[in-house]
Amino acid sequence: MKAAVRPGSDGCRISSAAEFDGWIAGRSAAELTEPFTFVVGTDGVLRLAPRRSEHVACAGGDMVLSAGEIGFVREADRWAVSEISNQSTGYCPDIGSWSEVARALDDVGLERPSGFTHEVVFRRCPGCQEHNIVREDDLVCVFCGSDLPDTWNVDPTV
Fold it and tell me: In the chain, which end has fewer C-beta atoms inside a 10 angstrom radius, N or C?
């Protein structure tokens, strides 16, 4: 996927309330009805892109602390996070990456939930090396039937 990243395809860097306000003001009403792609870079800064953007492209091909989809809602006179997940098959982030996401959202001054509103559990099969989405705590590889580990093991540096 990293080979498909093109210059200028990375997400918009959002490190302040003013940057978020400028970015969100440029979104159409139709765009605001769907979640956006997000990543939190290794610098701890939020990046946002249209929903159908690849997370790896949003990150400019770089490593991230977390990734997923995020939706916003206007509440009174401010924007808030209405939904957020760690659903990113490009990075397969652990649900424990929430603390990095929370910190990035707090830095921007966005109201947020206390955790991912939709958690996706990822595991890499030690047998066939395929990435799995674990459903209903069934820790069995859908590709080869091997047992999956209890803890997150999708570190892309391994």
Answer: C
Q: What is the pTM of this model?
A: 0.91
- HSE (CB half, 13 Å, CA atoms) of 154? 27
pLDDT in tens, 31-68: 999 999 999 999 999 999 998 889 999 999 899 999 99
Residue 120 DSSP label: -
Tokens of 22: 């400028």
Note whether 73 and 82 are within 8 A (CB). Answer: yes
Largest CA distance in the chain: 52
Question: By the 8 A CB rule, do 75 and 117 touch?
Answer: no
At CA 139, angle to CA 137 and CA 144, rounded to 5?
Answer: 145
What are 41's two structure tokens?
């870079």
